[in-house]
Amino acid sequence: MRTASIILCFCLLVTSGCTTKAFKDIDRRFFVLALGVDKSKEDSNKYRVTLKLGIPSPKIEPGKAKSQIISQESESVSDAIRLLKSKVDKELDFGHTKMLVIGEALAKEDVTSAIDFFIRRRDIQNIAFMAVGSPDAEAVLKITPKSERLPANALFLSFDELGTESSFIITEYLFDFYRRMTEKGLDPYLPVVQADSETYIINRIGVFDKTRMKLMLSPKESAILNELARNIQKFHILTRTKDTDFSLSVEKFNRKFVFDPQDATKLHVKSEIEGTIEQSTQPIFDEDWKKYEQQTEQVAVKRYMDVLRKLQKNNVDPIGLGLIYRARHYNNDSKDWETWQKIYPNLSFDVKVDVKIEGTGVIK
Amino acid sequence: MNRYFYYSILMCMLVNTIIYVPNILFAHRHNSALTGMLLSVVIGSCLAVIFSKAMMNKQGQGLPELLTQHLPLWIKGVVLIYLGFMWFAAGSIVLIVYSIILKRFIIEDINLEVLIILLMSVVVWSASKPTKTILYLLEIVMVINVPLVSIILFKALSSKYMNWYGIWNIASDNVMKLPNLDVVAAATYLFTGYINQAIFNREFDGRFCPKHLWAIPFLGLTILSTTFFIPIGFHGTEGVGHFVYPWVSTADSLRMEFGFVERVVYLFLLLYLSLTLIFVTVTWHVGYRLIESISQKQFPIRSWSLKPIVVFGSFMLITIFLAYFLNEKQHLILGTYWLRLRFWSELGLVLYVYYLSRKGKTT
């Protein structure tokens, strides 16, 4: 019994580690909430790393979120982090880093080593949100919207699909970006966050090949890519013809990609759209809805066709058509991949959209 | 009592993500992993059924008693020491790997040896208890953990970020490949829990007759395919090979918006803390009992029995040395070799035990 109590006391001595360097109290830590990586403006070989540190405050009120921004230039991201540690009085903690922003200039050049740092580091979460910062990451991190109740929370809410739900915002997690960087036939994309004077504008998507951003889509195209790649449910389609002008708010959406069994270079895109009319220049209720449905179908086909062709022309594949091809063909995997690389530039699309109008809203 | 047999099997199935089984499977994902897995479901369940039938014939006897009847003392001693250390190695590998994971993902700054000593002292204390106590402990831990495992599986399967095309690509392109020994050795590990019956059989009061043995292949196939396919669905057919601990990274890719904690990885690590501790406790206990039963003498020094001190002391020393001198890559290589050696030893042991049980019946 005495031996047992001595061992127990020894265990207590070993585990009481608050004074050693192993365990730091929460008041001796700085929580990094967002991390931005830019290309240095002076020296093109250097990175500029910016951290947004949360400052705990006793009151949680809109507009009272306090944060501190620190930046450092260095040859590598990890080196810059080490140098940044000498600029602050507390230990940097990356356990709550939920936003990783890559500057536009760096994104257009090469993101591999920055992503490698993020994914290799054990304390940066795989479910951190990623974005491209325009004009640069630092400018995005410096903005504090007036409605913000907790530091950097506005960015988190924009992406976590619990706050705003917009068809222009695409959510991208770190693990998904890394998967897309390595997978054959599935290319990465990132939402582009533009710094406005007091708020963010997030309505474009940057599409990457495996290493750099190849094209930036317009807001309209971004919403369409969001539909095709992520199958989002809430968006609208504007139909304009000679005599009508109405917009359909979509409530149910589904799309399918099927390769033609006879012709390997043909892809059928089938989609089903159900929704209600949200705005119209004339009463629709008593008319024949078939006509409006057909008009919307024509518009929808053209929307999808334009984006699919644009992606094809740039030889990027964020929807993952290559992966679908690999999965649906049962040859040797590397052979499938080689064939696909030859097929994709000449792939023809056959888009079929089935629109169903459910109602006309409150008025006829 | 018969449910305890299944707890032991389930424990070994769940602990596979720590003992490098996924790493070995992913290394062969583009050629023989799938066929190897299917083959090992057949081999693993056959071994489980044969072994439990043999143990049913020898009610109330453990492996040491069985060997005593048929082997001279010195051969029995060598065999039992070898088997005891095989059991110990299983626990030791899991303990070291889990400590490294714990150090990496939760407490970066702690000294690895200190962490291992802390975990080991808990394990040794509980492993030196009577077999019945260990069985009760096993039941409690499994009952607590199975719901947590189901939450993680549900979160993974219902995630929109799970890419089923990648999974289908890996599954469909490799159905005609010949199985590879490494894969079979790793994947049969999932079924190996029945082997603890070698000692547990003593405690079943002569009433060991497990029903529903047919459930073993189904359970094994389910857990094996989730182990293999879910990380592919999250990290892609290429990316999955880039991770050192694929399942920890997969758990880190899951998000619980409305959970206690957002990051599922902490739930996963908590779950595997208890699983690791119970697994090491069971394996070290069985290893200790096997070595201990070579001789009936107690070798007392004053009031202390020397046997547990020597056996557990050597277990602890070897573990510390392994953790201190080898790096992560060498641990992986060691784990792979151990899995291969285990496969052949297990095959030999099960067939021999079956032969002994038949022999005892006819004479």
TrEMBL record, chain A:
| Protein name, as recorded | Ger(X)C family spore germination protein
Instruction: Please tell me whether the keyword RNA-binding is annotated for this protein.
Output: no
- Annotated keywords: Germination, Lipoprotein, Membrane, Palmitate, Signal
Instruction: Tell me which PANTHER family the record gives.
Output: SPORE GERMINATION PROTEIN B3
PROSITE patterns per the UniProt record, alphabetical: PROKAR_LIPOPROTEIN
The primary location reported for this protein is: membrane
Kindly list the residue ranges recorded as spanning the membrane: none
Out of the domains of life, which is the source?
Bacteria
Tell me the ranges covered by the Spore germination protein N-terminal domain, including all copies. Answer: 24-194
For this chain, the family text in UniProt reads: Belongs to the GerABKC lipoprotein family.
Membrane topology per record = Lipid-anchor
Q: Which NCBIfam families match?
A: spore_ger_x_C
Subcellular locations according to the entry: Membrane
This protein's species is Gordoniibacillus kamchatkensis
Q: Pfam families annotated for this entry?
A: Spore_GerAC, Spore_GerAC_N
Spore germination GerAC-like C-terminal domain: residues covered: 205-361
From TrEMBL, chain B:
- Domain of life here? Bacteria
The keyword Ligase is assigned to this record: no
InterPro entries for the chain: Spore_GerAB
Reply yes or no: does the keyword Zinc-finger apply: no
Record-annotated membrane-spanning stretches: 6-26, 33-54, 74-98, 110-128, 134-154, 212-234, 264-288, 309-326, 338-357
Q: Which UniProt keywords apply?
A: Membrane, Transmembrane, Transmembrane helix
Put simply, this protein is called Spore germination protein
Origin species, per record, is Gordoniibacillus kamchatkensis
